[in-house]
C-alpha cells in the first residue's frame, strides 16, 4: 500500500489553476524530488499533502486514509508528517531545544526529560548540539534549517515534506542542509522534496517529478530523467538550469 | 471619615501656600479615593485583559460564527460612549434583577468597554506574527488553541506591550466616570472637596491630577520595563 496517493488533484487561486489533475503515489521509504520552474505548483502540491492548502477537486490519502477535515483528526494526521519550510519557521520566542520538544510534549504527551534527551540526540545528529539553548535568530540560516529538520524528526514522522528547504540559504550553507537530508534519505525515511538542487535530486531521489504550469509532466528515476527527459518542457528546463 | 472636617481648618486671607491645607487636612480622603481608583483599574484591567484576549481568539478563529460574534461585540462596544455603557449596567441590569454594589457595577462597565480595546490591540499583535509560525505549529500537529496559546499569543503580546499600555492608561483615566455612578474614587472625592472648599478648587484639583499621574506614570514605567525584558536576548 502506498503511503501517499494523489488522485485527480486540482486547485485554483482565483482564476489561476495552480494544480491541474495531479496523480501521484509515493511508496513508504521512497524519496521523491519535485522539480520545475517557479510558479509551476510544486510548493502548493507539497503543502496539500498535509492540508496546509485545501484542494478543490480530487482526493489525497495518507497511510490508506483520505485526509481528514480541519480538527483534531487532522492534527493527529499532521503529527505523523514532518514539514520543513523554505523560511525555517522556527518558533522565534523559544530556544532551539524548546522548539524541538514542543511537539513531542504537547501533541504526543512525552515527558519533558525524555523529550529533551531525544532533542539533544537529534541536535547531535544534525550537528548543532551546542546551539540547544540559543534562540533561532542567533543561528545562521543553515543551522536554523537543520534545527527545523530536527524539530520535524522529533515527532518520529512517517513522511517528511521539504518545501524548498535550501532556497533561502546562502550558497555555503546549502551543503550542510543537503548533507543532513541525504543521510535522512539513506536511513529509509519517506521524503517528498520540492527543490531547485538538481545535484541532490540526481543523487538522493528514487524518482523525480517534473511539474510545469500546474501539471505533472514527468515521473521518472533521476538517471533516466536527467539523461533523457521525455517532454520538451523538461528538456528546455534542464538546459537552462544545468548549463550555468 | 465621620467627624472629619472636610473644610480646611482655619481661614487665612492670603493666596499663597495656605490653599494646600484643603488637601493636607483631607489626606485620608484622598487616600480612600486613590485606593478606589486603583482597585477599579486593577479589577477592570485584569478582567479586560483575559476577556479581551479570548475575544481576540474568537476574531482570528477558523469558525465563522465566532468571528462574527467577536466583530459585532467590538464594533458595538467600541463605538458606544463609555458613559452610556455605565448607564446600561447601573440602570438596566437592576431592572432584570441583577443587582451589585456601585463599585462592582463600575468594574463591569469598565471591563465591558475595555475588553473591546484589548481585543483590538491583541488582534493587531496576532496579525503581526509571521503566518509561518502558525503554519509550523499546525504542521507539528498542534490544535488551533494550542497554536494560539503556545506559539502565536506569546509573540503577539511582545508586539503589543505599548498598545496595551495605552489601553491601560485610558482605563485609569476612564475610571473617573464611575464618580457619576456612586463610586467615591479620585474624581468623586475631588468634586466633594471642591464643593466643601470653594476657595481651594485649584489646589484640590491639582492634588487629584497628581494622584492620577502617579498611577499612569507607574504604568508607563512598568510597560517600558516589560518591553525591555521581553526584547532582551538570553545567551
TrEMBL record, chain A:
The keyword Nucleotide-binding applies. Residues 4-238 form the ABC transporter domain. Its EC number is 7.4.2.1. GO terms for cellular component: plasma membrane. It is found in: Cell membrane. The keyword Cell membrane applies. It is a peripheral membrane protein. Gene3D superfamilies: P-loop containing nucleotide triphosphate hydrolases (3.40.50.300). PANTHER family: AMINO ACID IMPORT ATP-BINDING PROTEIN, GLUTAMATE_ASPARTATE IMPORT ATP-BINDING PROTEIN GLTL. Belongs to the ABC transporter superfamily. This is ABC-type polar-amino-acid transporter.
From TrEMBL, chain B:
GO terms for cellular component: ATP-binding cassette (ABC) transporter complex. InterPro entries: AA_ABC_transptr_permease_3TM, ArtM/GltK/GlnP/TcyL/YhdX-like, MetI-like, MetI-like_sf. It is a multi-pass membrane protein. Keywords: Amino-acid transport, Cell membrane, Membrane, Transmembrane, Transmembrane helix, Transport. Its main location: membrane. CDD domains: TM_PBP2 (cd06261). It comes from the Bacteria. Residues 34-223 form the ABC transmembrane type-1 domain. GO terms for molecular function: transmembrane transporter activity. GO terms for biological process: amino acid transport. It is found in: Cell membrane. Pfam families: BPD_transp_1 (PF00528). The chain crosses the membrane at residues 40-61, 82-103, 201-225. Belongs to the binding-protein-dependent transport system permease family. HisMQ subfamily. NCBIfam families: HEQRo_perm_3TM. This is Amino acid ABC transporter permease.
Amino acid at each position: 500500500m502506498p503511503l501517499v496517493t494523489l488522485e485527480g488533484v486540482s486547485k485554483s487561486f482565483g482564476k489561476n489553476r495552480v494544480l491541474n489533475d495531479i496523480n501521484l503515489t509515493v511508496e513508504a521509504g521512497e524519496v521523491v524530488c519535485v522539480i520545475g520552474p517557479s510558479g509551476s505548483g510544486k510548493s502548493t502540491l507539497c503543502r496539500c499533502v498535509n492540508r496546509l492548502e485545501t484542494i478543490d477537486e480530487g482526493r489525497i490519502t495518507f497511510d490508506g486514509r483520505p485526509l481528514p477535515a480541519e480538527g483534531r483528526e487532522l492534527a493527529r494526521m499532521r503529527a505523523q508528517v514532518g514539514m520543513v519550510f523554505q523560511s525555517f519557521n522556527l518558533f522565534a520566542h523559544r530556544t532551539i531545544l524548546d522548539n524541538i520538544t514542543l511537539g513531542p510534549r504537547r501533541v504526543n504527551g512525552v515527558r519533558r526529560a525524555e523529550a529533551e534527551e531525544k532533542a539533544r540526540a537529534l541536535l547531535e545528529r544534525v550537528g548543532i548540539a551546542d546551539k540547544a539553548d540559543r534562540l533561532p535568530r542567533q543561528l545562521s540560516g543553515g543551522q536554523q534549517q537543520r534545527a527545523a529538520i530536527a524539530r520535524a524528526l522529533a515527532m518520529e514522522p512517517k513522511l517528511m515534506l521539504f518545501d524548498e528547504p535550501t532556497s533561502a540559504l546562502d550558497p555555503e550553507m546549502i551543503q550542510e542542509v543537503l548533507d543532513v537530508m541525504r543521510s535522512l534519505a539513506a536511513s529509509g525515511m519517506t521524503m517528498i522534496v520540492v527543490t531547485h538542487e538538481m545535484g541532490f535530486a540526481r543523487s538522493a531521489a528514487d524518482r523525480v517529478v517534473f511539474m510545469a504550469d500546474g501539471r505533472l509532466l514527468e515521473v521518472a528515476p533521476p538517471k533516466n530523467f536527467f539523461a533523457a527527459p521525455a517532454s520538451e518542457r523538461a528538456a528546455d528546463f534542464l538546459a537552462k538550469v544545468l548549463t550555468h | 471619615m465621620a467627624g472629619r472636617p472636610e473644610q480646611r481648618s482655619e481661614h487665612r486671607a492670603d493666596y499663597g501656600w495656605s490653599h494646600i491645607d484643603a488637601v493636607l487636612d483631607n489626606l485620608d480622603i484622598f487616600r480612600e479615593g486613590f485606593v478606589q481608583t486603583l482597585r477599579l483599574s486593577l479589577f477592570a484591567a485584569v478582567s479586560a485583559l483575559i476577556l479581551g484576549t479570548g475575544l481576540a481568539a474568537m476574531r482570528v478563529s477558523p469558525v465563522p460564527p465566532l468571528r462574527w460574534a467577536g466583530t459585532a461585540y467590538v464594533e458595538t462596544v467600541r463605538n458606544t460612549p463609555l458613559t452610556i455603557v455605565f448607564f446600561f449596567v447601573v440602570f438596566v441590569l437592576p431592572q432584570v434583577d441583577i443587582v451589585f454594589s456601585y463599585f462592582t457595577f463600575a468594574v463591569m462597565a469598565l471591563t465591558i468597554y475595555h475588553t473591546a480595546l484589548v481585543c483590538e490591540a491583541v488582534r493587531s499583535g496576532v496579525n503581526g506574527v509571521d503566518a509561518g509560525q502558525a503554519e509550523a505549529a499546525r504542521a507539528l500537529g498542534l490544535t488551533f488553541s494550542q497554536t494560539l496559546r503556545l506559539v502565536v499569543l506569546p509573540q503577539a503580546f511582545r508586539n503589543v506591550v505599548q498598545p496595551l499600555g495605552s489601553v491601560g492608561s485610558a482605563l485609569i483615566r476612564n475610571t473617573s466616570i464611575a464618580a457619576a455612578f456612586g463610586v467615591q474614587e479620585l474624581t468623586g472625592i475631588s468634586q466633594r472637596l471642591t464643593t466643601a472648599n470653594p476657595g481651594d478648587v485649584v489646589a484640590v484639583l491639582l492634588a487629584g491630577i497628581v494622584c492620577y499621574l502617579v498611577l499612569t506614570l507607574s504604568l508607563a514605567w512598568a510597560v517600558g520595563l516589560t518591553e525591555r525584558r521581553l526584547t532582551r536576548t538570553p545567551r
